[in-house]
Amino acid sequence: MADRSPDRGSPAARRYVFDRRLFIVLAVHLALLAAAVPVFAFIDNDSLFWSYYTVAFVSFFLLICCVRYEIRCQKEAPPVLDRFDKKRVKITAEDGSVFAGRAEAYPSGYGLHVFGREEESLLIGGIHVFLTDIRRIELLDDGREQAIPPRRYDDLMGSLLERPYWIADILPEQVPENADGQFFAVERYYLQPARLGALRRRFAEILLRLNCYCDMAVSFDNCESWALNPDPEEFAERLAALSGNTFLRAIFASQETMIDIEPTDTYMTVYDPKGAFLDRLRKLAEAEGLFVWQPPAE
Questions:
Q1: Mean pLDDT throughout 38-49?
Q2: Do residues 27 and 59 make contact, with C-beta atoms less than 8 angstroms apart?
Q3: What is the reported pTM?
Q4: Which residues, in sequence order, are CB contacts of 111 under 8 Å at separation 6+?
Q5: What is the pLDDT of residue 55?
Q6: pLDDT digits (tens, 9 = 90+) for 147-169
């Protein structure tokens, strides 16, 4: 939609955008008539004189109508596209194209500077959809991303923290304390922001695929709040930006399994995975170039 020229004949264009071309023509016409006033003042021809003022009056009347039309259009215009910013939406375009996903709102100044179109737009799926190209917008935030009472999982978390855990890691097994080599130097290499961000994207891919088989509740604020089945794009972005004193905790209640990711870890800690869940975790980790192993009993 970003490379389409404005469709001035579309219903959306007639409703939302004031066509200034007629306004400009009438304004220029009135300016020319005004400039001709001194000339007509010296013409001794009543018919021509009144014809001139009739044309001037009609032009002025049409100009006023155009201004009133613009004001009415502004009053009837729907809420600005900012209200859809960061929301999951389904957009149906005038040409029948359909776009769905989390939208990002851009102001008209951006459209003018980048695309030569002074219109608001929504970026969705890598495509800018402009206001006059939009036939209908539907919100898709239908409650799947549910808020959960903060203390709902306290008992389950307390129990899982006492059970055996597994590690999904960049290494195939735990490095012994007396091992040769340069473990800490390699760890610092992977903790560089770009590499850590890439690693977290792999973690997000695994968690989202596990979410295809069962519900996943996640918390990014030290278990103060939870969201059930978060939006995939937003979840991946928040995981990539994980920092400070917070951590990600994902709970798969139906599987009685929990996964933790700390801001400075290059691995995921998986508490008590069993059966089909553990099998899927291993396959997904392998597909992302990671390894799943269980630390030796202490």
A1: 58
A2: no
A3: 0.54
A4: 117, 118, 119, 120, 121, 128, 130
A5: 63
A6: 556 677 888 899 999 999 999 99
Integer Cα distance of 96 and 94 in angstroms: 5
CA 89/CA 120 separation, integer angstroms: 16
Domain count along the chain: 3
Q: Are residues 174 and 253 in the same domain?
A: yes
Regarding whether 33 and 153 lie in a shared domain, the answer is no
Residue 163 domain-assigned (yes or no): yes
Tokens 């596990």 sit on residue: 210
Reduced to 3 states, what is the DSSP secondary structure of residue 152? coil
Give the H or E element holding residue 251.
strand 248-252
Residue 250 half-sphere exposure, CB side, CA atoms within 13 Å?
Answer: 26
Q: How far is CA 12 from CA 75, 101, 130, in A?
A: 15, 22, 11
Residue 247 lies in a domain: yes
Domain identity same for 155 and 289: yes
Name residue 47's amino acid: S
Task: Check residue 298 and give its pLDDT.
Answer: 65
State the maximum Cα–Cα separation within the chain, in Å, rounded to a whole number: 113
Strands (DSSP E) contained in 73-156 are 88-93, 98-102, 104-106, 121-124, 127-130, 134-139, 146-148
The burial class, CB within 10 Å (0-12 / 13-18 / 19+), for 95 is: exposed
Domain carrying residue 50? 11-76
Q: Is residue 1 part of a domain?
A: no
Q: Are residues 52 and 153 in the same domain?
A: no
